[in-house]
Amino acid sequence: MSKLPNVWVFSDVDSRLPEVITGGLQLGDKVSALVLGTDADVAMAHSLGAHQVFHLGEKPDTRIVEDYVDTMIHAADAHGRPELILIGATRRGKAIAAKLGARLQAGVFNDASELEIADAKVKAKHMVYGGLALGEETLCSQTAIVTLANGVFEPAAATGATGETVSLDFVAPKHSITCVERRQKAGQGVDLGKAKRVIGIGSGIVSQDNLKKAQELASLLGAEMGCSRPIAETEKWMERERYIGVSGIMLKPELYFAVGISGQIQHMVGVNSAQTIVAINKDKNAPIFQYADYGLVGDAGKVIPALIESLNA
């Protein structure tokens, strides 16, 4: 695969930084990481393979991440614009990508599931039509900005390497948003995309009592809990951060345990990279069984307690 001379990477979520740096190393000869955090975070970026780190400093609690776009622009003007800026596809990551695209007059591509360099241009693919197809685009602007879907690159392990660090002064935006208070949200901070085992809950779970049983099963399996869209947005039984699907979280676990999930394409595109899919559904004709490696036809309210009993035996 051909490479670009200079690639910048950024992630507002620490756990996504190893993957975006790995992607940068595969796509560029030189990788510069924009790091918002402590000196330890800078050292970690170097250790993961970044040749250069632009240190944005530590973020005050009253400042939002998007307010660092002007600082990033100033760095690009002072140190030369990269051919590619690779950003983790989080909500804030996409907001930053949009702002950078407008300011740099750069093409922006969101939720990339495949990336390559061809004829010195970035070619990217992502899911379209609710996951029914893959769309491919070539970004022809001087700088291409791409937000990276979870699981595209295998995160590299830290090596203890060092490199150049450039400290950047904060450049305040003309119009900023000041955070006056922060309140912890229940369930906030879960990084479902990194879980090795996930139990996904759908409408077939029927009741919150069954949901509690599913949580007990997850504990026994060492799994995280996820859900389909109706559970998060209609029933509101689980946090929005746990919603799996084309407009939610994209997973790449070793085991995905689907309980009471019908298997509509909008959900299944979120788990199509799972190594093993196990499904429980009382409808023997449910689409989920077309994707499952192992399927069990039965009422979740009866099957889950039986599984718990067997695991405890």
UniProtKB/TrEMBL annotation:
It holds the Pfam family ETF. Keywords: Electron transport, FAD, Flavoprotein, Transport. The keyword Transport applies. GO terms for biological process: fatty acid beta-oxidation using acyl-CoA dehydrogenase. Residues 7-183 form the Electron transfer flavoprotein alpha/beta-subunit N-terminal domain. Binds 1 FAD per dimer. It comes from the Bacteria. Its cofactor is FAD. One of its GO terms (molecular function) is electron transfer activity. FAD binds at S228, R229, G260, I261, S262, G263, Q264, I265, Q266, H267, N281. InterPro entries: DHS-like_NAD/FAD-binding_dom, ETF_a/b_N, ETF_a/FixB, ETF_asu_C, Rossmann-like_a/b/a_fold. The keyword Membrane does not apply. Belongs to the ETF alpha-subunit/FixB family. This is Electron transfer flavoprotein alpha subunit apoprotein.
